[in-house]
Design a protein that fits this description.
CATH topology of the largest domain: Spore Coat Polysaccharide Biosynthesis Protein SpsA, Chain A
CATH class of the largest domain: Alpha Beta
Number of domains: 2
Structural class: alpha/beta
Helix content: 10-25%
CATH architecture of the largest domain: Alpha-Beta Complex
Radius of gyration: 22 Å
Order of helices and strands: HEHEEEEEHEEEHEHHHHEEEHEE
Distance between the termini: 46 Å
Shape: globular
Length: about 375
């Protein structure tokens, strides 16, 4: 979906991916990548150390077996860190006029060419200093998210943080954009910070996001001559939607992307920015898999319509306001035989709209009945 949606959005430039050796790929994958003109770089790696040290599906304690002509000198580290070494290799193949967007591939799809919004800015004399980073939802800050706060604790010895540090929005390391030169500085800073702090060894942290936010919040990029452009959720090229669903979201704020959050076209199905325009890139869509399934299947699997140009639903879904104190669940149960009041917050999208797997919506999503009514 990552590759197919980007090509469908009209992007004709280079797509560079690190991939498994061709003999280890599933059937037809290699042919598909060639058909889509993807620059696929196969690599091998070996992972060891403690079992279970993973962030989502990203292994830790790994060395690259064949990326370097000589042996891998950095020692065991998470693959989430190693990817910056790959970025550096690729970036050096491009001219200073190039622009680059690095992204997680598993949970990202495209709805428009991601570089078109920057066309005007790229004509400015100082555009090469721009580094674009993308914020998650404001409900999730560096102080309220236990994971991001824990990752930033690795850098306490530098005595860099202020009280304001812990009220900052989380910038996701899964998406960063900039000119070739700006991205080289960014990647080099990430690798230097990893080599210096070794958070994966000293603190057992398998994530690259701590380094990403540390370098932004500490002002390291600015001191290195970069102009950091931090784009709030729903206002820029990349729309990161994961933090709008899950345990950290208050129950009264949970609800569908279209009727509750107002960031999804209720008829055409695509994700929008907060101004109603179509988001060029959507990241962390898998946190809304139930709600997004129909759109993604029609847009990128059956290939039956172009995002933004066809109607997915006959009419918009309606949202009914409610008072949680006077609201009761429908007398139905989910496919897991549990009442909606017992449904975990991270599974909220299971019951967010009629027609999905749970089949019946709960009152907290606008479809319930009031007590005593």
């Amino acid at each position: 979906m990552f590759v197919g949606s980007l090509r469908k959005a009209g992007f004709t430039g280079d797509i560079a991916l690190s991939v498994s050796p061709e003999k280890e790929m599933k059937r037809h994958v290699a042919a598909y990548l060639k058909n889509q003109h993807v620059l696929a770089y196969p690599f091998k790696f070996t992972c060891g150390g403690p079992r279970g040290r993973k962030l989502l599906v990203t292994p830790g304690g790994c060395v690259l077996d064949d990326w370097y002509r000589d042996r891998d000198a950095r020692g065991p580290r998470p693959l989430a860190i190693s990817r910056y070494e790959m970025y550096e290799t690729w970036l050096r193949q491009y001219s200073a006029e190039s622009y680059v967007l690095d992204l997680d591939t598993r949970d990202t799809f495209f709805q428009a060419d991601p570089f078109l919004p920057l066309a005007a800015r790229r004509s400015a004399a100082d555009h090469a200093r721009d580094l674009y980073v993308f914020e998650e939802d404001g409900l999730k800050t560096t102080g309220t998210c236990k994971w991001n706060k824990g990752w930033l604790r690795c850098f306490e010895a530098a005595k860099w943080h202020t009280p304001e540090t812990w009220t900052q929005p989380v910038r996701c390391s899964g998406s960063t954009l900039g000119s070739r030169d700006a991205m080289l500085k960014y990647v080099d800073a990430m690798l230097s910070a990893s080599d210096e702090w070794l958070c994966h060894r000293t603190k057992g942290i398998p994530s690259d996001q701590g380094y990403h936010n540390y370098l932004i919040l500490s002002g390291a990029h600015a001191r290195n001559g970069l102009r950091v452009v931090s784009e709030p959720r729903g206002s820029g090229v990349v729309h990161t939607i994961g933090a709008m669903n899950g345990n950290s979201v208050p129950m009264e704020l949970l609800g569908p992307l279209d009727t509750k959050w107002k960031v999804r076209d209720p008829v055409k199905g695509f994700i929008t920015n907060t101004d109603g325009s179509r988001s060029p890139v959507v990241h962390q869509w898998d946190r809304w898999a139930g709600e997004m399934k129909t759109f993604l299947t029609k847009a990128f699997v059956t290939d039956s319509f172009v995002p933004g140009k066809g109607e997915l639903y006959a009419r918009p879904f309606e949202f009914v306001a409610y008072d949680p104190k006077t609201c009761a669940d429908h007398p139905f149960v989910t496919k897991h035989k549990k009442g909606c009041d017992r449904l975990r917050a991270e599974n909220a999208d299971w019951v967010s709209q009629a027609g999905l797997k749970a089949t019946q919506a709960c009152c907290k999503f606008g479809g319930g009945i009031k007590k005593g009514a």
